[in-house]
Structure formats: structure tokens, C-alpha cells
Amino acid sequence: MERELADFTEREKFEDRRKAYYDYLEWLKQQNIAIEDFLHNSTAFIGDKQIHRMLTVYELYKQTIGLAGHIAEIGVFKGAGSLFFAKLVKIFEPEAFTIVHGFDWFCGKSSNESKNAMISYNSDYEKVIELIDRQSLGGILKIHKINIINECESFFEKSPQLKFKLVFFDIASYEVMKIAIPLFWEHLLPGGIMVFDHYSLQTSPGETIALSEILPNAVIRTIPNSWTPNAYIVKGEI
Ligand SMILES: C[S@@+](CC[C@H](N)C(=O)[O-])C[C@H]1O[C@@H](n2cnc3c(N)ncnc32)[C@H](O)[C@@H]1O
């Protein structure tokens, strides 16, 4: 029987790689690698996909060096993205006032957010804060524990001066994106970039649908061959 387009997901495109990766992961778990070994030689262990994501984020961040404004990540989870941005700021803007603002309610994904039911995206706010403090990054990275849907507007009412040069969206929910895109767009400076983690993905269409409703004429750019994030808009190009 012929399948509907809606039944296909991007996961299938890389199905042939999946077994080898999970076999490797199982093998790695058995190796009892010391945490110091893992951290100090991390590129020996982590996958090329993880490295690819870091390089893409770095390329996007690089485009904003020289622009005024702060950085926002919407969807913090365990802190991988926000802490990475904080470390980029520490490396490239050590004397500037640039701050990274991470937004998350720390309650996991909303219902019907994504077809990828394997991940709940539950995480622990206190653990993320401790991770930031233990690495002395509290001066660069601020985490805002809010529900974007009903608290984001009042957050910006209290902080009208907050302006961003880079806004990174990593929440699949249409309901969240519909509220968040206009609010963060208003606070994005001209020349700044709005980044989308999984534009045009069948598994999580909310981001794409909200974007096309709110900014239908936006020129949507990509970093060639990037996995995720995979789209960005430069404010001023529309
Ligand atoms: C895909 S994860 C973010 C991953 C993270 N950017 C990274 O690189 O590891 C999505 C996050 O969105 C958060 N989230 C979902 N709905 C939300 C809402 N209504 N308000 C705030 N955060 C929300 C979830 O708690 C989850 O941590």
C-alpha cells in the first residue's frame, strides 16, 4: 500500500547509520571510561553529528561578532546549547557585556510537539544552574525559568531594553513558536539573526508553520549541509 507523505519522517533518511551508532554507544558504555579521559579527549568519543552541530552554531555566532546585542536560546533542556554559547562569548568577547539568555520551563515538551516520541526533554533547572555556577559562567549566562506561552510577554514588558543579535529557537511546539517568534523578533536588532533548529522537518512541523504565518516573506538561509540547526533569517533582509 502506498504511504502518505505524512507517514515519512526524516529519521528514515539516516536509518542505515543508526545501528552502527547505537552499537558503538553500547560498546562505549562498557568501557568504563574515566570522566577526565572523556572530557579531555571528547572529540575522540563524540559523534561527527555532535561536532557538526557545534561547528554550525559557531559559524552562525561568528556572523554576529561585531554586532551589538545579546544572545537568546529558547529551549535550554540540559544546557548544551546555552553553555556552548556562553563559552563562545567567554572566548571571543571576554571584555564585552554580551550575555546569553536561556529560556525554558524545564517541564519537557508540550503535548503533540513532535513525532519523535523517544525524547521527553525533561530536565532539571537546579542541575543546569549548578553546572553554570561550577564553571563560573553565571556572569555570562542567565537562565529564565518561564513558560513561553503565558509568561514571555510580561518578561519583555519588564525588560524592554533587552536587545539580541542572535536568537536561537529550539522548541518544536507550534503554540510556543507562534507566541515567541513575534516577541523575540521585536527584540532582535537589525542585522541580527534568528536561527531555527529544525526548519521544514516532517517530525516537528510547528516551527515551520508558525514561521511561515508570522514572517511569510522572510528570506530563509541555511548553512550548507547542516543537520541542525538548519535555517536562519537575517533581520533587515525582508
Ligand atoms: C529540544 S529541547 C532544547 C534543546 C537544547 N537547545 C539543546 O541544544 O540541548 C526543547 C526544550 O523546550 C522546552 N519547552 C517546551 N515547551 C516550553 C514552553 N512552553 N516554555 C518554555 N520552554 C518550553 C522543553 O522543556 C525543552 O527543554
Major sheet attributes? 6 strands, mixed
**CATH class term:** Alpha Beta
The CATH topology corresponds to Rossmann fold
What oligomerization state is this entry in? single chain
Can you tell me the overall shape? globular
Provide a concise account of the structure shown.
The chain has 238 residues and is an alpha/beta fold. 41% of the residues lie in helices and 14% in strands. The mean pLDDT is 93.
Question: Can you offer a commentary on this structure?
Answer:
The protein is of the alpha/beta class and 238 residues long. The protein has a single domain, classed as Rossmann fold (3-Layer(aba) Sandwich). It is 41% helix and 14% strand. It has helices spanning 15-29, 35-40, 42-45, 48-63, 80-92, 125-134, 148-158, 174-186, 206-214; strands spanning 70-74, 100-104, 141-145, 164-169, 188-196, 231-234. Strand 4, helix 8 (174-186) and strand 5 (188-196) form a beta-alpha-beta unit. The longest helix has 16 residues, at 48-63. It binds S-adenosylmethionine. S-adenosylmethionine binds at residues 73, 75-78, 80-81, 104-110, 121, 123, 147-149, 170-171, 173, 176.
